[in-house]
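Why predict the complex rather than its parts? Because the way molecules touch one another can change local conformation, and only a joint prediction can capture that. The input here totals 851 residues.
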Amino acid sequence: MESSLVSKVISNGISLGTVVSPRFKVNRITVNLILPLDQSTASVYAILPFLLRKSCEDYPDFSMLQRRLDELYGAALEGDVRKVGDNQILSLAATGIDDAYTLEGEKITGELASILSGALLRPAFVDGGFDPKELELEKNNLVDLIESEINDKRSYAINRMVEIMFGGEPYGINKYGNADEVKSLTAEQVTAAYHKAIETAKIEILFIGCGDSSKVEGIFKQAFESVLRNPVDITQSHVSGDTKEICHTDRMNVTQSKMVLGFRTGVEPKSPQSYALRLMTAIYGGTPFSLLFVNVREKLSLCYYCAARFDISKGILMVDCGVEDANIDRAREEILNQLESVKSDSFTDDEMSQAALSLKNSLNTIGDSVASLENWYLGQIILGLQDSPEDMVRHIAGVSRADIVDAANTIKQDTVYVLTQEGMYLND
Amino acid sequence: MTNTRIENTRINESYRQIKHRSGLTVLLYPMEGYSSAYALFGTKYGSVDRSFKTGKSNDFTIVPDGIAHFLEHKLFENEEGDAFSLFAKTGASANAFTSFDRTCYLFSTTDNFEQSLGYLLSFVSSPYFTKETVEKEQGIIGQEIQMYRDDPEWRSFFGLLTAMYVNHPIAADIAGTEESIAEITPELLFDCYNTFYNLGNMILAIAGNFDIDSAMKTVDQKLSESEKITITRAEYDEPPHVKTPILEARLEVSIPIFTAGIKLAPIGGLDGIKAELCYEAILKILIGPSAPLYRALYDEGLINSGFSADVMRGDGYFMLVFGGESKNPELVYDRIKTAIGSIKEITQDQLSPVKRRMYGDMVRSFNNVQSVANNLVLAHFSDTSIYDRIETAANINIDDVNKFFWAINTEYSSISIIKPIEG
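Output of the joint prediction:
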């Protein structure tokens, strides 16, 4: 099923993108404020979605709003922060079942859009600003959220690697900001940041589901009519192929060590070489029959998991693994050996065609989920691309063996990060 | 072979239930407009099946903890290599998982459906274990057990089960321990395989984009009739009280993580669904995001938006579970228990909006190929249909809810806390 996005500009710097299909039973509407990732604003912006999701002028009380959402068949109003390249995205999302499935034929999608636009544009201010009591609570929660990243060692290690590899650059900034800065935020600062975000952000509204988006369009058009807007363009992410070889070890009380390797390609998101890099990553470490999985995990039993991912927004490749202390060096050596085998064209036709088939399968599955579609298209929009998942399948089908080898040879090692209790990375 | 169409007018959908001549139950749920098909081939066999016998023997066989999970790992490979290499040829994304009461092998694919289904049915039906491959797997699973040891949420959850259950094997880690898996031999694996991988104990559920006839043609080709056997599982004399009221451990976490639970009497079948849904409603009313107590705990900074509550049930266990992160887990736990003890009854006014939320959640679960296939399996293994939940949800009333509410005894509860490492 083709899942193309239909996009139109509904106001100054505000677009509405829709994917509508009768296969769904729900509608998901998200408003995304796209802002440049910057150390001075990351924390103050990050707290906004968590404050906004809790109330609005029509439902100034959190419990009252939650009760109304219960009545709307368990609709959800959620706030979160995302990072795509050098951009910080503040998202507010409302998801509910479609009007066709309500028990008494109630029309709920329009009301959900109104609640969402109300939460974004008519917050329940006290004396012209955010309620200091609410702010204190959400500051504490955001600090906890940042500090609890340590609980999941795998993603913690990846985040630390990115932070070190991109030290001093926007991409190295945590999407939730910094705990100490969050603690010092005042209601005045947060309220001012809110007004600035609403005024300057490029705004992408996405409607994915089975319902009628025209009412939603009307609601947002009207809601933004009286809003002062001076939108700035989406930041083009800085892509560099210059490497600095950094080795960093963090010590922590863990049973299994984690190692993350960062590589740079210097390939821009819009370059057709990014298609070859996607396929190259799948061959190298993107599937359970990839070179890393078969050799590093299965044949040599060096790691419990070992996988590669490509971040198109920055043109970087990451390999992460869970490894016993004694095997850290050997695992790294073998991860690099396998990379060499792709660079030197020593992978089989089967390895290539199977990776392409697997990639095709995962791309074609994106259209079966509203959340995956939303994530896909938001990424495309921010990178200035317009491909549907099916378009990407066609691009990948056009990648040749020579393209893969060329793409692999853009890959240069940058950062090695190790999280361990006792283990020692010999080159440390 | 019987072939029944089961439909639901509320969401206007239907599926086929086929009792195949091999003994296998096949549930087929085509979904229009979707690109992928999701197939699950599963057995009603999980970590709780520690002791069992078939009609052939008089004595119960007692097996080491973690063997169902071990068997799943071993079945995933054959003489040539692992199952992933088979699915590499079709592009399907394949996986397997073991839970308390089921083991499932699955794939999701947008192309080459029949071929993928053929691989799925074949590899699960071709056990291959030798002393050497069993020993190698003991090392791999040992790593997996270690990895979970660093996972605070997993540790907190299993800590709770250990605290709550005195005799029931649900308290054992699904993967077992390094010691228990060391006892596993090829012979024991074959014993378990021949018992629980009998097709009469298994199910094939497929949802999404596929053709019913070609699915059945593949089943006909790949599966032959299996011997009829009866499996008797040992019953556990589980007292109503908990083993210990509190368990604590320390790990690298930023703030304490806790899981608390209240133990209830187990109920199965359709009555079990009713009880489960009533308790889901009760949890939403008492500690869901719209509840006054949730609000109070949130405003006092004692819980955050990660706090959640759920009902968990299966053969021989039934419990209310809630948890998240908190600077003071003991206080959250006390406040919730006190609230349950002090409320006289649930009112219709409280139930109505929550009932709508539950109905909406169920409609939502039919919006996704993967959740439809999983729910088909879950319903089948508890002797119900996938539509029984949505129908029961539409019909629960305040008297049922209060009957179940009054059956809660907060004395039968435990809490498991993972605290930060000191110093």
